[in-house]
């Protein structure tokens, strides 16, 4: 097995207040790649590529097209092991710890290993916590798990700390793509106070003010998908 550099993990641990734009291969149109890359906010640090229902082929075509237009690091954000693609730079090695579906706790991870053993992708061990964003999300539907209520702060903190004790390197607090409201600053700051890992926050972030609030509460990286995507539909 090749050694994986820890370049992006170090950047996530050290830099803070970073921005990722999420591209969902499901909705991605190849002919719009150039315009889309030009429209990226100047502060963009990473592109996340993934979706709950995207196929491997869609994911690969999307990443290859983006790679022709930008040098930004491309981080896979997989909804399924078949989305593993060697053309990316890194992978959020997600485990859906807010739910009790073994497929999303461990089976996708095991199934991805044959693709990852031979690859140079940097692996980012990530605890993925789905928090209620006010409407049913695709992740809930696909994984057949329920989101944790925003009021269950202690459960969220305990789940994040369990992730830290398990050796995860990143915590992703997810309100679901297109959420009516994002993960609250109360939840983010409670996790930040209790847990040493960098926090990624995504789902339902639409305004600069919401993004600033997430950083102030302790998010190291904010993910925006729908608000960017809507320019291209
Ligand atoms: C580690 C490997 C290989 C796979 C991980 C598999 C796991 C645990 C996935 C977590 C659950 C899941 C389905 C995550 C998908 C996250 C994602 C990329 C969401 C993007 O948004 P969509 O859910 O596609 O939203 P739309 O409905 O708006 O398209
Ligand atoms: O599409 P939005 O609501 O920006 O969510 C982004 C991301 O966190 C979803 O997985
Ligand atoms: Mg999708």
UniProtKB/TrEMBL annotation:
<keyword id="KW-0808">Transferase</keyword>
<dbReference type="GO" id="GO:0047294">
    <property type="term" value="F:phosphoglycerol geranylgeranyltransferase activity"/>
</dbReference>
<comment type="similarity">
    <text>Belongs to the GGGP/HepGP synthase family. Group II subfamily.</text>
</comment>
<dbReference type="InterPro" id="IPR010946">
    <property type="entry name" value="GGGP_synth"/>
</dbReference>
<keyword id="KW-0460">Magnesium</keyword>
<comment type="function">
    <text>Prenyltransferase that catalyzes the transfer of the geranylgeranyl moiety of geranylgeranyl diphosphate (GGPP) to the C3 hydroxyl of sn-glycerol-1-phosphate (G1P).</text>
</comment>
<keyword id="KW-0594">Phospholipid biosynthesis</keyword>
<dbReference type="Pfam" id="PF01884">
    <property type="entry name" value="PcrB"/>
</dbReference>
<dbReference type="InterPro" id="IPR038597">
    <property type="entry name" value="GGGP/HepGP_synthase_sf"/>
</dbReference>
<feature type="binding site">
    <location>
        <begin position="203"/>
        <end position="204"/>
    </location>
    <ligand>
        <name>sn-glycerol 1-phosphate</name>
    </ligand>
</feature>
<keyword id="KW-0444">Lipid biosynthesis</keyword>
<dbReference type="GO" id="GO:0005737">
    <property type="term" value="C:cytoplasm"/>
</dbReference>
<keyword id="KW-1208">Phospholipid metabolism</keyword>
<dbReference type="GO" id="GO:0000287">
    <property type="term" value="F:magnesium ion binding"/>
</dbReference>
<dbReference type="GO" id="GO:0046474">
    <property type="term" value="P:glycerophospholipid biosynthetic process"/>
</dbReference>
<keyword id="KW-0479">Metal-binding</keyword>
<dbReference type="InterPro" id="IPR008205">
    <property type="entry name" value="GGGP_HepGP_synthase"/>
</dbReference>
<feature type="binding site">
    <location>
        <position position="24"/>
    </location>
    <ligand>
        <name>Mg(2+)</name>
    </ligand>
</feature>
<protein>
    <recommendedName>
        <fullName>Geranylgeranylglyceryl phosphate synthase</fullName>
        <ecNumber>2.5.1.41</ecNumber>
    </recommendedName>
</protein>
<keyword id="KW-0443">Lipid metabolism</keyword>
<feature type="binding site">
    <location>
        <position position="52"/>
    </location>
    <ligand>
        <name>Mg(2+)</name>
    </ligand>
</feature>
<feature type="binding site">
    <location>
        <begin position="172"/>
        <end position="178"/>
    </location>
    <ligand>
        <name>sn-glycerol 1-phosphate</name>
    </ligand>
</feature>
<dbReference type="InterPro" id="IPR039074">
    <property type="entry name" value="GGGP/HepGP_synthase_I"/>
</dbReference>
<dbReference type="GO" id="GO:0120536">
    <property type="term" value="F:heptaprenylglyceryl phosphate synthase activity"/>
</dbReference>
<feature type="binding site">
    <location>
        <begin position="225"/>
        <end position="226"/>
    </location>
    <ligand>
        <name>sn-glycerol 1-phosphate</name>
    </ligand>
</feature>
């Amino acid at each position: 097995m090749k050694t994986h550099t820890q370049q992006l993990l170090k950047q996530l641990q050290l830099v803070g207040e970073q921005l990722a734009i999420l591209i969902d291969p499901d909705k991605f149109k190849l002919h719009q790649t150039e315009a889309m890359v030009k429209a990226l906010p100047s502060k963009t640090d990473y592109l996340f590529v993934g979706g709950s229902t995207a196929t491997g082929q869609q994911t690969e075509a999307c990443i290859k097209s983006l790679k022709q237009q930008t040098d930004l690091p491309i981080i896979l954000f997989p909804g399924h092991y078949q989305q593993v693609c060697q053309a990316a730079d890194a992978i959020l090695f997600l485990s859906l710890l807010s739910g009790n579906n073994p497929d999303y706790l461990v089976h996708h991870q095991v199934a991805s290993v044959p693709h990852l053993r031979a690859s140079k992708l940097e692996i980012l061990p990530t605890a993925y916590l789905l928090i209620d964003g006010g409407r049913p999300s695709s992740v809930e539907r696909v994984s057949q798990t329920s989101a944790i209520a925003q009021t269950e702060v202690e459960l969220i903190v305990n789940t994040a700390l369990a992730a830290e004790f398990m050796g995860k390197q990143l915590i992703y607090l997810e309100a679901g793509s297109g959420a009516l409201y994002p993960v609250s600053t109360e939840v983010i700051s409670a996790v930040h106070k209790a847990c040493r890992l960098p926090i990624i926050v995504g789902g339902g972030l639409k305004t600069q003010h919401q993004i600033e609030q997430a950083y102030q509460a302790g998010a190291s990286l904010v993910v925006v998908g729908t608000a960017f995507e809507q320019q291209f539909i």
